[in-house]
Structure formats: C-alpha cells, structure tokens
Automatic annotation (TrEMBL):
<keyword id="KW-1015">Disulfide bond</keyword>
<dbReference type="InterPro" id="IPR033116">
    <property type="entry name" value="TRYPSIN_SER"/>
</dbReference>
<dbReference type="InterPro" id="IPR043504">
    <property type="entry name" value="Peptidase_S1_PA_chymotrypsin"/>
</dbReference>
<dbReference type="InterPro" id="IPR001254">
    <property type="entry name" value="Trypsin_dom"/>
</dbReference>
<dbReference type="InterPro" id="IPR009003">
    <property type="entry name" value="Peptidase_S1_PA"/>
</dbReference>
<keyword id="KW-0378">Hydrolase</keyword>
<feature type="domain" description="Peptidase S1">
    <location>
        <begin position="1"/>
        <end position="138"/>
    </location>
</feature>
<dbReference type="GO" id="GO:0005576">
    <property type="term" value="C:extracellular region"/>
</dbReference>
<dbReference type="InterPro" id="IPR050430">
    <property type="entry name" value="Peptidase_S1"/>
</dbReference>
<dbReference type="GO" id="GO:0006508">
    <property type="term" value="P:proteolysis"/>
</dbReference>
<protein>
    <recommendedName>
        <fullName>Peptidase S1 domain-containing protein</fullName>
    </recommendedName>
</protein>
<keyword id="KW-0720">Serine protease</keyword>
<keyword id="KW-0645">Protease</keyword>
<dbReference type="GO" id="GO:0004252">
    <property type="term" value="F:serine-type endopeptidase activity"/>
</dbReference>
<dbReference type="Pfam" id="PF00089">
    <property type="entry name" value="Trypsin"/>
</dbReference>
Length: 144
C-alpha cells in the first residue's frame, strides 16, 4: 500500500481474524463510511458504527425466504440491529463486523432498504474463509 499505513499511531493496529464459527446472539460492532440516509444520499464526515447481534444461519435464511433473488449460503453470516436507522447502508460494503475484538465478518449486503429491521445485514464469514484469507495474506508478505 502506498503510502504506508501509519504504524506509529496507537489508534491504528491490525485486527485478529476469528478462527471459530461465531454463534447467534453474540454482540458485535459494525462500522463504515456508507450513506447516512439512502433517500438524501448523504455521507458522514466521521466513521459511523452501530451495535448488532449475530443471528443463526437458519433464522437468516428464513428472513430472506420472501426475496426470490436473495440466497443465504454457507460462508455467509447475518447480524441484526432492531433500531431503525442503525445498520449498514450503501457504501458500507467491505467494512468490518467486529465481535469480541475479532474480525468476524466483512459487509457484503443486506435487505432491499438500508437499516431494515425486517432483513438483517449479510456478511462474508471470516472463519469460513480463514484458510483462503491466510493464503492471500502470505502471498502479500512474499511480495514485500
């Protein structure tokens, strides 16, 4: 990466990857620079975050069963925030889902509306793809 990340700042540090499958009910934090309001197309001046809870794979599949184009598959995890307006929106894709200080998911999608209480946010499950992620990290180190 050029320029390099500032490694002398105590607020900047790598996050550990979750190695085990996360279970439903775990409290997590989602953060991002996505839209504050999808209708007004406004973006934040500071990093936004919300608290969410993981839900089970079965519950997530059930909540998306009424959307024919949505398919929850292995390797996906879901988190829900029951407070309207406090969840992921357009522009948050690629952002972290942190649970217990571990990178647990990477934002990949959600319902048809931002911050929907009906459809949970969908993340790529870091533990599911840990072998692939670690291979990519190793490749990157070899290129340095």
């Amino acid at each position: 990466v050029s320029p390099a990340f500032p490694t002398d700042n105590p607020a900047v540090k790598p996050i550990r990857l979750r190695q085990d499958v996360a279970t439903g009910g775990i409290k997590c934090t989602v953060s991002g620079w996505g839209l504050l309001d999808e209708k007004e197309n406004t973006t934040p001046q500071i990093l936004q975050f919300a608290i969410a809870r993981l839900i089970s794979y079965e519950e997530c599949r059930s909540k998306y069963s009424n959307i024919p184009t949505a398919s929850i598959k292995p390797g996906m995890i879901c988190a829900n925030n029951h407070r309207r307006g406090q969840a992921a929106c357009y522009g948050d894709s690629g952002g972290p889902l942190q649970c217990g200080g571990l990178l647990t998911g990477v934002m990949s999608g959600g319902g048809q509306k931002c911050a929907s209480t009906e459809h949970p946010d969908v993340y790529t499950d870091v533990a599911y793809y840990k072998k692939w992620i670690n291979r990519q990290i190793s490749k990157g180190k070899d290129e340095l």
